[in-house]
Amino acid sequence: MRKLISPSQAQEAIFQMLARSPSIDCPIDQCAGRILREHVRADRPFPPFNRSMMDGYAIRAAEIDVSGTFKIIAQAPAGAPELTLGNEPSVCAEIMTGAVVPSDADCVVPYEVTRQIDETHMQVIHPKDHAAGDFIHAYASDRPTGEVLLAPGIRIGSREIAVAASCGCKTLLVSAKPSIAVVSTGDELVDITATPAAHQIRRSNDLMIDAALKRRDLPAAQLAHLPDEPNACQAQLQALIAQHDLIILSGGISMGKKDYIPAALDALGLHCQFHGVAQKPGKPLGFWSHPECAVFTLPGNPLSTLTCWHQYVLPALDHFMGHDSPPIPPQLSLEAPVKARDDITIFLPVSRKANNIASAQPANNSGDLVRILQSDGYIELPPTQEKGYPAGKSFDFHLWY
Ligand SMILES: Nc1nc2c(c(=O)[nH]1)N[C@H]1C(S)=C(S)[C@@H](COP(=O)(O)OP(=O)(O)OC[C@H]3O[C@@H](n4cnc5c(N)ncnc54)[C@H](O)[C@@H]3O)O[C@H]1N2
Ligand code: MOO
């Protein structure tokens, strides 16, 4: 490990070195969850005509007299071109929701507030209750033609799909998904299909990372396992670096005699941006870069891997994809006093209770992956000379994926 840097310096270093994903055209029905890389402008006004908001009658408001009676002279269904009421006074058109309001009408009166007199006449029950503009979604009142409706960098959800579809976008320019390899290391680890011997454990970090990536719609292109043997480890890493944009590796990066990863990455010509962060868990976190590939080395203890994935890899993926305005983390306030450190940041697992209260759920240590089940996420406790924080103090909360 090198000189420890702070969590914010680590994040800054990652953002500075990480390239941007290229943009690709994507069919609109496959864009949900992706990051937009173009401006989408209104190709016509929103709405493109005076749209009736109710089923009822289109009238001229100034013609409502004490009798409230109108002659029905036309039908204006949705999907029919604009019509006019003409010169005859006190006439109306029967109109449907979504239909174009006749050019010389200015008010829509819903059926519920009228009474049908006969086949061709209706009466407005309370004549004084209606005015010009009622129940008309006016032409261009939402947005004029040419206005930017969607800007680059946003995550596309159902609302954005609806707006883009309304503008006639069959495809959208979005960030290409990176090819990601998730890599585990360590001779003590066996595949879940194998029965572990007494000295072995089943591999779980790789599946944990892949599951979190899948929730972000970025499944790993490859899961690989490296042996604790320097030459094989370096050769396999070289092949992985050649094939993928990002590598998320867990384990083999602290100070053990068989922690070969840092030396292998150095030997392969990658540049170590940092190795060692003043935080717990996750102190041996590292980041190596190369023009075509970036490697996150997450400490192998499961809670360290999980926390570092959330704190560093997830924002880095957003940055890589061009999504630069991730949501501001909610603040939770401590239910009871907690211990902190004066030299390092603590990421403390907590459960989220009503009224945004954080209840500490510390693990036994960062190898305890079962206790994490009782937490909903973690809060970030910066270093403090007091070595603790009182009940009621608020901190950024990050939900587990
Ligand atoms: N002398 C020092 N020793 C250690 C330091 C240190 O600063 N000085 N840091 C400690 C910290 S903090 C952590 S965290 C760990 C991280 O070590 P590594 O990244 O080298 O991880 P390993 O030693 O390979 O594994 C640690 C632990 O996690 C288990 N593990 C690893 N990968 C997986 C996986 N894919 N699935 C499930 N479990 C996994 C592994 O079996 C070990 O038990 O180093 C401390 N040591
Ligand atoms: O990074 Mo370690 O998580 O303190 O065991």
TrEMBL record:
Residues annotated as domain MoaB/Mog: 181-319
UniProt pathway annotation: Cofactor biosynthesis; molybdopterin biosynthesis
Required cofactor names: Mg(2+)
Highest taxon of the lineage: Bacteria
Keyword annotations from UniProtKB, A to Z: Magnesium, Metal-binding, Molybdenum, Molybdenum cofactor biosynthesis, Transferase
Reactions performed catalytically: adenylyl-molybdopterin + molybdate = Mo-molybdopterin + AMP + H(+)
Family recorded in the similarity comment: Belongs to the MoeA family.
Function: Catalyzes the insertion of molybdate into adenylated molybdopterin with the concomitant release of AMP.
Name of the molecule in the record: Molybdopterin molybdenumtransferase
